Amino acid sequence: MEPLVVVVKAVHAQIALRHLLDSHYLDSSRRIHRTADEVELPVTAPPASLPVDFSVRWQQTVVARRYATPMEEVRVEAELFLSPRKVHMLPEKWEKIGDVLVLPSLPSIGHKQRIAQLYARALHCRTVLEDAGGITGPLRQPQVHHLYGSTDTETVHRENGIRYQLDPARIMFSSGNIDERLRMATVSNPQEVVVDLFAGIGYFTLPLAVHGGATVHACELNPLACRYLERNCVLNHVTDRVTVHRGDCRRVAPRGVAHRVVMGYFGSAEFMSTALAALQPEGGVIHYHCTCSAGEFPAHPLDEVEAAGRRESRQAELIAARKVKSYAPGVVHGVLDVCIS
């Protein structure tokens, strides 16, 4: 019997691959086959569903992998110069942003440049950075060290048919938020006006404008992120639907225009009055991102939104609450969809 593949459009391959990995459908013994328009992803059985359009068919040409996974390739090569204990310490998670790889901190392993080269080869990346302290400050700047490859770290990351140009050495991008970016592509429509208070390079602005067709007012404090946001609007052909507002959203956000407001910045409770003011007089929806202990979600952030609403004589009703990802042990990154009237 010929083995099965899931076939998706090339622009949807990354999303489908992640979901097949998470649901344990991917057959890692065979290579992925790509053409200009579509990608064949080898599977052990047909998946019940995917967040993108797909078909299932028999694979005509099977190419076996030399290594089952990139991680296995890294480990095999690392055994030539690292002790078994240190091989076991090699990170199994990373951020691949375009063709730039960001590895977690490697403080006690040694041979950092050589290890970085192994990851670059296994994951087909031209540059490898090391996370040296996460995302810091109001401008949300990554703290990284260059380990391997080109020092030109600007890249284009493709996801869900959208192109994000950025420099991961200077601008944050969280692969873990992919499901929320996919969701934002589906919540709006061409009749809506959206205000994104913390737009960055367009993480949520672009899905809302490209796939939802919404008119978006995108506010961003970081000048470099603003430049990339403007470039990304050109790259994705939505300059007619996105207006970039440079500066602190409390000063530059439009008032009384929005059907929905996106608050994608942790610690944004102090900006609730700005979000409420941006909504149309009859109200709308606020997408409120937060971090809090798993046991307090969603009650604690909902209390914050309700309290802010009372101060402005507005009513807040929870529509939905979802956990985006684990942020730290016992801490979740969550988002509330709240109807304001």
Describe the structure.
- It is a single chain.
- With 341 residues, the chain is α/β, with parallel strands linked by helices.
- The chain has 3 domains: 4-58, 2-Layer Sandwich (Alpha-Beta Plaits), CATH 3.30.70.2580; 70-153, Met-10+ protein-like domains (GMP Synthetase, Chain A, domain 3, 2-Layer Sandwich), CATH 3.30.300; 176-340, Vaccinia Virus protein VP39 (Rossmann fold), CATH 3.40.50.150.
- Helices cover 25% and strands 31% of the residues.
- It contains 10 helices and 17 strands.
- It has helices at residues 13-22, 70-78, 84-88, 112-123, 178-184, 205-210, 223-235, 249-252, 272-278, 299-311; strands at 4-9, 33-34, 38-43, 55-58, 95-97, 100-103, 127-136, 141-149, 155-159, 162-166, 193-196, 215-220, 242-246, 260-263, 284-293, 316-328, 331-340.
- The strands form 4 sheets. It has a 7-stranded mixed sheet, with helices on both faces. A 4-stranded antiparallel sheet has the order 2-3-1-4, covered by helices on one side.
- β5 (95-97) and β6 form a beta hairpin.
- The longest helix is centred in the last third of the chain and has 13 residues, at 223-235.
- The N and C termini lie far apart (59 Å).
Number of helices: 10
Strand order of the largest sheet: 13-12-11-14-15-17-16
**Which structural category do the helix and sheet elements fall into?**
alpha/beta
* Mean residue pLDDT: 92
The outline comes out as globular
Q: What is the makeup of the main sheet?
A: 7 strands, mixed
Number of domains: 3
- CATH class value of the largest domain: Alpha Beta
The CATH superfamily of the largest domain is: Vaccinia Virus protein VP39
Please indicate the percent range of residues in DSSP E strands (runs of 2 or more).
25-35%
The assigned CATH architecture of the largest domain is 3-Layer(aba) Sandwich
Radius of gyration: 22 Å
Q: Total number of β-strand segments? A: 17
CATH topology of the largest domain: Rossmann fold
The helix-strand sequence is EHEEEHHEEHEEEEHEHEHEHEHEHEE
Q: Name the poorly predicted regions.
A: none
Distance between the termini: 59 Å
Helix content: 25-40%
